[in-house]
Amino acid sequence: MPAPAFTTDVSSLPTHAFGHRSLTWWGIVAFFLIEGTAFALAIAAYFFLMSQEQAWPPPPYHPPDILAGTLFTILLLLSEIPNTLAKHAAEHGDLRKLRPLLLIMGAIGLALVVLRAFEFNSMNIYWYDNAYGSVIWMLLVLHTTHIGTDWVDTLVLAGLMHGKHGMEGRRFVDCSENAMYWRFVWLAWLPMYVLIYWLPRLQGS
To answer: Which long-range contacts (CB under 8 A, 24 or more apart) does 185-189 make?
Structure first.
């Protein structure tokens, strides 16, 4: 059987692509659907448990202290500014601009992790106290895993982009898709912020 013969030179074709032309982009979109379903189920559990109680939170517990969660939310929303700039720099192959932006996002991630620790300390309830405590801790832990995942990914990318692999095209794609993932992280947090901090206050007013 003769060996296959190639008659077309494909060496000039690009080795990477952004957006829907990238296979990993579709993987991240599928991940959004999976994790979005997990968030939706957690929120559904929240409303189911709330419907079983006469008061929310049930006495003698009080809603979480709002300061840490609000500071976290403000910083999370502001982080979209350097995140968008990083995505733009990655998609234009601008390594000089991308490197400091990744470091900024890494620093923001660290600050968010610290603020999240204060959030856990301001819940005014533990997960084992009752169903209300379990569900708000579940929402917070679920979102924290996504914060931590993207933070570590950002640190890894920052290290790669400051090293010898910084000029590889696929690394720019990774940075662009990491920025897209971060948008999912902060968008997913907004309804949970309302459920954890504001709905119990509205129910009790």
So the answer is: 185/76, 185/143, 185/146, 185/147, 185/150, 186/76, 186/77, 186/79, 186/80, 188/35, 188/36, 188/39, 188/143, 188/146, 189/73, 189/76, 189/143
How does DSSP classify residue 10?
-
Tokens of 186: 């902060």
* Domain 24-54+65-204: top CATH class: mainly alpha
Portion of the chain with pLDDT greater than 90, in percent: 77
Q: Is the pLDDT of residue 105 over 60?
A: yes
Q: Locate 51 and state its tokens.
A: 């419907």
The end-to-end CA distance of the chain, in Å, is 81
Query: Other CB atoms closer than 10 Å to residue 73's CB: what's the count?
Result: 21
